[in-house]
Write a structure and sequence with these properties.
The radius of gyration is 17 Å and the shape is globular. The chain has a single domain, classed as Nucleotidyltransferase, domain 5 (2-Layer Sandwich), CATH 3.30.420. α6 packs across α7. By secondary structure, the chain is α/β, with parallel strands linked by helices. It is built from 8 helices and 5 strands.
Length: about 200
């Protein structure tokens, strides 16, 4: 499938901890769906994690206990999230982190998180070898992308989205024009790509 025909859902979560196994829960989720670089829809919401957040966590994302106390539970958000992600390829920075939390939250609701195709901009950044640090905000700064609001879900989504389309433009120069080629590239080194086309 041509990349210009794919709906990409850039996604980010903010959480109460570093892992679901350690008791962490999602406290914010955001998604921006785009096709050929044009945004089709956006969705963002705070989520009541059902537990107080530690001050150290609040200091990172700025989401307070007061902000989430009247927010919906994840189970209330789940149907809308499924609708937004329908027929999309999920794009995230350090995707394993976000997908791990979503899988856990879905399981708590008695469901399996669907097996969406996933593109990880962290993997693309590491393979490119051009960034001093591969954290989202540092990559955005290096590419001249606005970093305001870093560590809030929608701000991170918009940075991820711009970084992702930057990589698609760079990869197009190497002949990557289909989703299959993009998936294959995630397992290859950037400099080897031209030799395999």
């Amino acid at each position: 499938m041509l990349l210009t025909d794919v709906k990409f859902a850039c996604l980010d979560t903010e959480t109460t901890g570093l892992s679901p196994e350690g008791g962490g829960k999602i406290c914010e989720v955001a998604v921006s769906v785009s096709k050929a670089g044009h945004v089709l829809s956006e969705f963002t919401t705070l989520i009541n994690p059902g537990m107080p957040m530690h001050p150290d966590v609040i200091a990172i994302h700025g989401i307070t206990n007061d902000m989430v106390k009247n927010a919906p539970a994840f189970s209330e958000v789940l149907p809308k999230l499924l609708g937004v992600l329908d027929n999309c390829v999920v794009v995230a920075h350090n995707a394993d982190f976000d997908i791990g939390f979503l899988q856990y939250e879905f399981e708590q609701c008695g469901m399996h998180f669907p097996k969406y195709p996933v593109v990880d901009t962290l993997k693309l950044a590491r393979k490119s070898g051009r960034f001093e640090k591969n954290r989202l905000g540092f990559i955005a700064q290096q590419l001249g992308i606005n970093c305001d609001g870093w560590h809030r879900a929608m701000a991170d989504v918009k940075m991820t989205e711009q970084i992702f389309y930057y990589f698609l433009m760079e990869l197009a120069k190497q002949g990557v024009t289909t989703l299959e080629q993009l998936n294959e590239f995630q397992c290859k080194r950037w400099k080897d790509l031209a030799r395999t086309q």
